[in-house]
TrEMBL record:
GO terms for molecular function: O-methyltransferase activity; S-adenosylmethionine-dependent methyltransferase activity. GO terms for biological process: methylation. It comes from Catellatospora bangladeshensis. This is O-methyltransferase. Keywords: Methyltransferase, S-adenosyl-L-methionine, Transferase. The keyword S-adenosyl-L-methionine applies. The keyword Methyltransferase applies. InterPro entries: Cation-dep_OMT, SAM-dependent_MTases_sf, SAM_O-MeTrfase.
Length: 219
């Protein structure tokens, strides 16, 4: 079997970014506001090109029912919100009132406030309260890595056939290759990746994009 891949240098990465849909003014403002307000934590924010991917995926599945686990200051929710079909809604879960107060302001600015609902509190509990039926078109997982398995267990049965799960940070800066992981997040992601790949309910593609993104389509 042939193996075809390239190492993405910084220059090549800039080229990739320059040849996709550029971010809008709102996304640039949100990135700057997040940097100013959260400092080092701003590194948790998805990149503008990742936001463009999320909007595209949301449009591709014609999402009317979407869920996000891990909202932070709102970049990914803006991206999903923009891609929703007519009448669509996004339910967001996060534990931080402080971070999500920034997201709320940007939802207002984007004219998306009536399409996005924030549920504050541990996402495991929030997800358990969602309707127990396969109705979700799109789900994005980007919160505490130790709970990815639990989020998956809650979400996969609620995805409709053809629905898309998008999971962030699945390469964890390459630490998923550690044979003896030194921290709980790495160990959890290694277990999660094996679990997702072996799940017969979904087709899975892992993209070496950003910090690693798993796309899983419900069969
Ligand atoms: C990586 S950030 C999300 C980044 C966001 N998707 C974006 O595009 O900017 C992770 C978020 O998960 C939230 N979080 C951490 N543990 C959580 C939990 N148990 N339940 C819900 N949210 C949680 C954090 O407050 C943080 O805002």
């Amino acid at each position: 079997m042939s193996r075809s891949f390239i190492t993405v240098t910084e220059e090549l990465h800039d080229y990739v970014v320059a040849h996709g849909t550029p971010p809008g003014e709102l996304e640039l403002d949100l990135a700057a506001e997040t940097q100013r307000a959260t400092g080092r934590a701003a590194g948790m924010q998805i990149e503008p090109e990742y936001a463009a991917l999320l909007t595209m995926l949301t449009r591709l599945v014609h999402a009317r029912h979407a869920v996000e686990v891990g909202t932070f200051t709102g970049m990914s929710s803006l991206a999903i919100g923009r891609g929703l079909a007519e009448g669509g809604r996004l339910v967001c879960f996060d534990i931080s009132d402080e971070y999500t107060s920034i997201a709320r302001r940007f939802w207002q600015r984007a004219g998306l406030a009536d399409k996005i609902e924030l549920r504050l509190g541990p996402a495991v509990e929030g997800l358990a309260a969602l309707p127990d039926e396969p109705y979700l078109d799109l789900a994005f997982i980007d919160a505490d890595k130790e709970s990815y398995g639990a989020y998956w267990d809650a979400l996969v049965p609620r995805m409709r056939s053809g629905g898309m799960l998008v999971v962030d940070n699945v390469l964890w800066s390459g630490r998923v290759l550690d044979e003896h992981p030194k921290d709980a997040s790495t160990a959890s992601l290694i277990d999660f990746n094996a679990k997702a790949a072996a799940d017969p309910r979904v087709d899975v593609v892992m993209l070496p994009f950003s910090d690693g993104v798993t796309l899983a389509r419900k069969r």
